[in-house]
Write a structure and sequence with these properties.
This protein is α/β, with parallel strands linked by helices and 199 residues long. The strands form 2 sheets. A 7-stranded mixed sheet has the order 4-5-6-3-7-8-9, sandwiched between helices. It has 5 helices and 9 strands. This is ATP/GTP-binding protein. Belongs to the GPN-loop GTPase family. Keywords: GTP-binding, Hydrolase, Nucleotide-binding.
Length: 199
């Protein structure tokens, strides 16, 4: 435990870091589990199960034919952004049959990352709509898959009809520094909104 000087040689415990909850959402196979795993400083909790023949009619693997597992509850990870700031990451399941879990996962969340794949951009509409309807601030992170076309931010924004205040960032869900940039964007966006309201 880190100690702070309290005067006259006395010490007191340093205050506990502020803990914030963020969601990571998006369509099936967009890279949510990969993103949480890339940045988590602890071994991430994963609730993945193998895709089966029974799920083939409801799990559209178009564009992600190599996908063999799927998240059935959540992913969980943790990252310390600063000595006084810790983020807890909750990755949501992508298929609509698991959306009933989203309300519970979203409870108390500061904000969210909506991960998008430009090859299947329509798959993130549900997540965008979910956070807009509930007033939860989010950053749209375009996961730059190998071989996927790159589009300017304004084209992605227009395709999804995003509000001007929603940050759009290109990222690589496999790269820790890239993911940290996305998470910092969510936190800064939320703090700016809170400061404006208090202002």
């Amino acid at each position: 435990m880190r100690l702070l000087r309290a005067g006259r040689g006395r010490t007191r415990p340093a205050p506990a870091p502020v803990a914030l909850k963020l969601l990571v959402a998006g369509g099936f196979g967009v890279g949510k589990t990969t993103l949480v795993g890339a940045v988590s400083e602890i071994r991430p909790l994963r609730t993945e199960e193998l895709l089966t023949e029974a799920g083939r009619p409801v799990d559209d693997t178009s564009g992600v034919e190599g996908k063999r597992t799927t998240t059935v509850a959540m992913d969980f990870g943790r990252i310390t952004l600063r000595e006084d700031l810790v983020l807890y990451l909750f990755g949501t399941p992508g298929q609509d049959r698991f959306w009933f879990l989203w309300d519970e996962l979203a409870r108390g969340a500061l904000g969210a990352v909506v991960l998008a794949d430009t090859r299947r951009l329509q798959d993130c509409f549900a997540a965008v709509d979910y956070f807009e309807r509930r007033g939860i601030p989010f950053t749209l992170a375009v996961n730059c898959f190998d071989g996927a076309a790159r589009y300017p931010e304004e084209d992605v924004r227009a395709a999804l009809d995003l509000d001007p205040g929603v940050p759009v960032i290109l990222c690589d869900a496999r790269d820790k520094e890239s993911v940290k940039g996305v998470l910092v964007s969510v936190v800064e966006q939320r703090f700016a909104e809170l400061a404006e309201r208090a202002g």
